[in-house]
Write a structure and sequence with these properties.
With 289 residues, the chain is mainly α. Helix content is 80%, strand content 0%.
């Protein structure tokens, strides 16, 4: 339920970000960080979770891993915000279509999870789709690749780091907070700050904290409890919603090469999903992933 909830929330995120068109993406990111930190601090206090935060901070390895995950999620957020406000939701959704199958590859290469022949075929078909788009020179493929890689590695780091979801996300956000404060301070000094220009916009920027923190908490909780390859099965929920919004609500152009690329990726996701269902029904006799 945590995994499904996180991906549905992310699938609807473009609808929220479109309300912030006109605000510089770096300022949106800074507000996401700061308001998320305030929300997380309140939740940690309510749940008496500061002990877990202090314990995590005493471990040098844990802190280094959380610094890496903080950087990865910041890059992912910034690229995604930029893509949405500049009308590249199709490319953004493509990145998150690639990511589930990238998760499968990471699970095999790094975590030692086994890949069945049908799963291998799924990854290969998706790779063909990406290659078609790359060779066509159409669209901003860098958006798709950067989103897929940054979030794929972020999920891997959060799976292996020895910290619970809430404490880990709180530390990550605190690591990013000084940079966010610097961004907003410079914007205010230069007269370009969006916050304070209207009550409606201020409310939206504050709400960005909730919109940011809750899905990440659900995702981190799911990543700690599920097989990483299986977690990838849920991820196409988000880009499916994003793709529909891009085409039917935002009016972004859908080209033939997009259809070929998405067709390959959808086929790969469907093959992986069907193979996973078949394996779960077959029981323990089927080799593990």
């Amino acid at each position: 339920m945590c995994g499904i909830g996180a991906y549905v929330a992310w699938g609807l995120l473009p609808l929220f970000l479109k309300l912030l068109v006109g605000v510089p993406p770096l300022q949106i990111l800074a507000h996401r960080v700061l308001w998320s930190l305030l929300l997380l601090a309140g939740i940690v206090t309510l749940l008496r979770g500061w002990g877990a935060v202090r314990t995590a901070c005493r471990s040098r390895r844990t802190l280094l891993l959380l610094c890496a995950s903080a950087l990865l999620i910041a890059v992912n957020w910034l690229v995604y915000i930029w893509a949405v406000v500049h009308g590249h939701v199709i490319e953004a959704s493509l990145g998150y279509f690639i990511n589930p199958l990238l998760n499968v590859a990471i699970g095999v290469a790094v975590l030692g999870e086994r890949l069945r022949p049908v799963q291998l075929a799924a990854v290969a078909i998706a790779a063909v789709g990406v290659a078609v788009l790359a060779l066509s020179g159409t669209g901003a493929l860098w958006i798709s690749i950067l989103l897929a890689i940054s979030f794929g590695i972020y999920g891997l780091v959060r799976k292996v780091v020895a910290v619970d979801a809430l404490a880990g996300l709180t530390i990550e956000t605190a690591i990013l907070a000084p940079i966010a404060i610097g961004v907003l301070t410079l914007a205010a000094a230069g007269g370009t700050a969006a916050f304070g220009t209207s009550p409606r916009l201020d409310l939206l920027l504050v709400t960005a904290g909730v919109v940011t923190a809750l899905p990440l908490l659900m995702f981190a909780a799911a990543a700690r409890r599920m097989r990483y390859a299986t977690l990838g099965l849920f991820q196409y929920l988000a880009p499916s919603l994003q793709f529909g919004e891009a085409v039917w609500l935002f009016g972004e152009p859908l080209r033939t090469v997009h259809l070929v690329t998405f067709g390959c990726i959808w086929t790969g996701c469907a093959l992986y999903a069907l193979d996973t269902v078949r394996a779960s029904r077959a029981g323990p006799a089927v080799p593990a992933e």
